[in-house]
Amino acid sequence: MAKDASSARTTITTTRDPAEAHPFYPAFCFPASPTHFAWVKLSIADIHRLRPKDGFEDDFAGQNVYFYNNHPIQFVCLAGVVVTRDEYERRTVLNIDDSSGATIEVVILKATATSQPNTTTTTTTTTTTSSGSDGGTTINVTSTARSPIDTAALRVGAVVKIKGTLSKFRATMMMHVVLERFWVLRETNAEVKFWNERARFLVGVLSVPWSLTPEIVEALRRRARDEETDVARDRRRVVEKQRRLEEREGKDYRRIMKRWDKEEKLREKEAEWITESNKRLEARLAKKKAAPNVNSLLD
Length: 299
Description:
Oligomer: single chain
Strand content: 15-25%
Strand order of the largest sheet: 6-7-8-12-11
Low-confidence stretches: 1-11, 14-19, 115-126
Region (Disordered): 116-142
Main location: nucleus
Distance between the termini: 128 Å
Mean pLDDT: 82
Domain CST complex subunit Stn1 N-terminal: 63-112
Subcellular location: Chromosome, Telomere
Number of strands: 12
Keywords: Chromosome, Telomere
């Protein structure tokens, strides 16, 4: 049953369909899920079957969490043939077909080329570049770390294994995958191995409803509450540390300004004394200079 956001955080919900009467656990239970932090091997048809959970939208806003039965999924792994490749200013779009009856768009982000450390995310070491509308050079980058990635091997007709994050285009609400890394499957055995692993995971994990005992749910709730308390305490420590630093810097500033004012007054007094001394010296020198002239006149 759909719940509002505040209720979804602390309660367990079930679907209306009796055939799918498995519980949907709140987000604080996800660390115990076998799928939430895993690269879940799925067929493209199954990826399109993933759905968000009504009532959990606020909990997962910006997280792109979708569900297979009641399994939360955010990272997927798929394998198929590159059918098309289109280049746009800010992204490269691949269309992948895995013969499951559906295709999916895999989006590869682009960024302006800058001097970056040499990172390797595939079996190749160079990066694919293109020119942007502003004349700058753009390169393909990964979805999370935004590190350069060479996509030259992702040609039409290549068989590839892809890992990426789930997302939807707002305009069409069609599911697509944002690429994180990939491998070219050069042998049929590698593709068959992927199919077998995908089938085993589907049967052994995804087809079995995710279930937690009340004791585990309560333990996860306590841990999440403790983590929130720790985060709040750490935030207060940071704020207090910043306040003390600003207070210390303020004291140092006032002390420096007070010393500067004192030294400035001393410098002003020294300047006055030097000026007076110079005047007296000039007067004495003028008097001495005038004395010989007077004596010569008397003679």
